[in-house]
Amino acid sequence: MTDPGRFPIPARVHRVEQVIQRSRFITTVAHAPDPEAAHAFVARMRDEFPDATHNCWAFVAGPPGSTTRIGMSDDGEPHGTAGRPMLTSLVHSGVGEIVAVSTRYYGGVKLGTGGLSRAYSGGVVLALAEMPREEKVDRRGVRLTVGYPDIDSIQRLVSEREWILLDESFGSDVSLELLIPSSEIEDARTLVADRTRGSGVLEEDAVPPDS
Asked: Rounded distance, CA 164 to CA 177, Å?
C-alpha cells in the first residue's frame, strides 16, 4: 500500500528541449511545495525567456495525483492545448509537489490543436522521464520524555530510525525533541514503551513539523 506520507518530488530543476515542426519547446520542471512557490518559478522562467512566444505552465503543489492545489495556463495558445495536457501529465506522473513550464519559440509552422497538445504533454513526459527525484517524508514534531536509566537505549533507537533529533534537555528526566515520519507515530509509541518498560512519554506536536 502506498504511504501517503512518502512520495517522490523533483530533486532539482531539470530541463529538456525539443524541436517540433521548427518550433523550439523548452520544458523545465522544479519542486513546488505550495502554489506560491509554483507561481514564483513560473515568473522566474518568464524572466529567463522574456522573448519566447509562449511560457505555458502547470503545477501540482501537493501529493501525487492530488487536485486540491493545482494550476495551469495556456499563455496565449488555443484554449486547452497547453496547460491542460501538461497538468494531466503531471497528475498521472506519480510525482508530487512539481511545477512545469514549457517555453515555446514559434518556428513558423502551425501544429494544430492536436499537435500542440502532444507537444506540450510530450515535453512534460520527457522531462519527467529524465528528472532526478528524491523522496519527501512527511514528519511530525514530538517530545519524548524518558528517565536517565533508559536514555542510552532511546538514543540508539533514534539512531536506528529515520528520526531527526532537534534538541535534548536534561532535568529531572531527559526530554528529546524529534521529527518522526507521520506514518510511524504509533509504531514509535510501541517502540518507546518497549525500550522504557512503559515509562517513556511521547507527546505529539510538541515542536513545529517544519522546524
From this structure: 9
Query: Smallest Cα–Cα separation from 68: which of 34, 38, 92, 31?
Result: 34
d(CA 182, CA 167) in angstroms, rounded, equals 19
d(CA 84, CA 80): 5
Question: How many CA atoms are closer than 13 Å to the CA of 116, on its beta-carbon side?
Answer: 23
According to CATH, what is the number of the domain 6-135? Answer: 3.30.230.30
Q: Helix, strand or coil for residue 188?
A: helix
Contacts of 105 (CB under 8 A, 6+ apart): 23, 24, 26, 52, 53
CATH of domain 138-204: 3.30.70.240
pLDDT tens, 102-155?
999 999 999 999 999 999 999 999 999 999 999 998 888 999 999 999 999 999
Do 12 and 132 form a contact (C-beta atoms < 8 A)?
Answer: yes
pLDDT in tens, 160-184: 888 889 999 999 999 999 998 888 8
Q: Where are the domains of the chain?
A: 6-135, 138-204
